[in-house]
Amino acid sequence: MPYDPKIHHRRSIRLKAYDYTSPGWYFVTICTEGKVHALGEIVGGEMLRNACGEIVAACWQWLEKRSEHVKLDEWVVMPNHLHGIIVITEGGSRTAPTKPLGRLVGAFKTASTSRVNAERRTPGAQLWQRDFYERVIRNERELELIRDYIRTNPIRWGTDPENFAVTKPDEEPWL
Predict the structure, then answer these.
(1) Nearest-10 Cα torsion for 22, 24, 130, 159
(2) Partner residues linked to 70 by β-bridges
(3) CA 50 to CA 54: how far, in whole Å?
(4) Which DSSP category does 171 fall into?
(5) N or C: where does the chain have the smaller number of CB atoms within 10 Å of the terminal CB?
């Protein structure tokens, strides 16, 4: 169905009036389209990335290399999502404008999708869901809780019922 502004209303899930170029710590979760297990598998509480998962990890690290105002903190690639903490800093040279969080995540999604599609020979296939979850980290306690959540995510994988109802990538037509 083509886009029709009368019936298609995309609402932002971001905080109103918050400047997402502001220096700060941001927790993001980015899910694969349909939550397909396309990035690896959990074995014995440990994440084993497949080739696509390795590409996603490299592209996540690329964010820090390409933007002087971006630092990465704790992160993990899971079978069907990525959790990570992005730190937006003041920047160094001030010659390049600070990109907002949404543009950073968009650049990651574009780069990783392109490389995964090249690996799988699936040009034009969608890897990620349209949006992403974000939370502005407000204090040190929250930061430590989120870091622990990310670190222990593979161990808790088997206890989350959302992870059982999803197909593996070889069962999906887009791959």
Answers:
(1) -170
(2) 88
(3) 6
(4) G
(5) N
Grouping H, G, I as helix, E, B as strand and the rest as coil, residue 70 is: strand
CA 101 to chain centre: 11
What residues contact residue 110 under an 8 Å CB cut-off, 6+ apart?
A: none
- Tell me the C-alpha distance between 33 and 37, whole Å: 9
Domain ranges for the chain, please list them: 24-158
* Range 24-158: architecture per CATH: 2-Layer Sandwich (3.30)
pLDDT digits (tens, 9 = 90+) for 65-103: 998 899 999 999 999 999 999 999 986 555 567 889 999
Q: In the chain, how long is the greatest CA-to-CA distance?
A: 49
Looking at per-residue confidence, does 109 or 173 come out higher? 109
3-state secondary structure of 36: coil
